[in-house]
Task: structure prediction
Amino acid sequence: MAEFQTHKNDITKTRLVSAGDKLEDFTLSDGEILVAIERFAFTANNVTYGAVGEQIGYWQFFPPSLSREDDTDWGLVPVWGFASIVASKNSDMELGERFYGYFPMANFLKMTPTRVTAERLVDGAAHRAELPAVYNSYDRLGSGANHATADGMRALLNPLYGTSYCLVDALQEQDYHGAEQVVILSASSKTAIGLAYGLSQIEGKRPRIVGLTSPSNVAFTQSVGSYDEVIAYDDVSALKLVPSVLVDMSGNVAVLGAVHGALGEDMRWCHNVGLTHWDTSEAQKDPAAAQIIRDRSEMFFAPGHIQRRAKEWGALDFNAKVAGFLAGGIEHAQTWMEIKEIQGLEPFGPIYDAVVAGNMQAKEGLIILP
Result:
């Protein structure tokens, strides 16, 4: 077994660690199962998991294999994907059954299925008990063969478009803070495209959907067909000075500050969502960063929104709404996204480095088969 480990204090540092290569290397307790991870998606969203891992607890989901000589600053970045049971000491779980959910970047994972229903289960491992429930729930898929394209799209977009749906819902609930335009930073990112798609499907009156992106991604972002206008970062002065709500997927404080400064009092609210630009050490020095209006900005945490809506609407109704959104969003994504598969964790290393550095084609969706 290999684990693709990342240094918690510097996510540009990674290593492959051997942690058992065959089933005999793993000992299961009563109630446990061992799953082989078939495929997982890797996106800028996973970079965010690593960049804010300590604050939100992402490092706690999958404790890494460490030797006595190791420091404790290595961890496993969580990813979304598919796995199948290869060993079981749980009477409810049969060999060959497949799951969709949250996994480490590794070949295997021991799980403790609890709250098992026909549709899903929860990993009841003790160290996950206090973590957000949405990350501990797994969809049961039976033992049928996988469908590479459908599984790839689901691994890539379910978690991202789940956040997109929550943002659309939150903006509508807040009546867009009275804004005439929704300005989305890092507009070529997949979560941003999902948000723009969701807003574009609203019938009746809605704000204009404006995307901000790097000059090299303007043409692509226009081509997805969900934005009313796309503006390059170096042309922020082209923004209309009307009441605006911002959704920032980038975390680039220099760019964000420039937008806040350009809009001034017209910047009614800013949802901070992602960190496609996670390394802000240089950006913090940019004078534009000082223009961020912090008393009208707040981090948007999708799991919290999911928990609240599931309680208000009931889990079944909430899940049905999200499923409908995902179906339409994935169908739309098939018009612009190209899936690229990488075989093995070792060849994945340079791909990881490129994504962390922000060097990834916007239209690509990366699927790793460990």
Notes: The mean pLDDT is 91.
